[in-house]
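Worked example 3. Consider a protein that binds zinc ion.
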Amino acid sequence: MVLTFECVCGNQTGLFATGDRDEQGREYLEAEDDDRISWVMGETGMLFKCSFCGHTYRLEKQ
Ligand SMILES: [Zn+2]
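Given these inputs, the predicted complex is written out as structure tokens:
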């Protein structure tokens, strides 16, 4: 498990490394259970949405 997502409602899921890499050696991540979380890449960053309660988290682009 590389990252763990835990919502305020208690919904929890992990992101794991798939073993597949891109041409620069960066490994792809996948959600352990994609019924629990969805994410959207936007202009200004990334949104993580909890599929249980609908709470949305925003990660600003660096
Ligand atoms: Zn939630």
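Take a moment to read the result before moving on. The CA atoms of residues 7 and 29 lie 19 Å apart. The chain has a mean pLDDT of 94.
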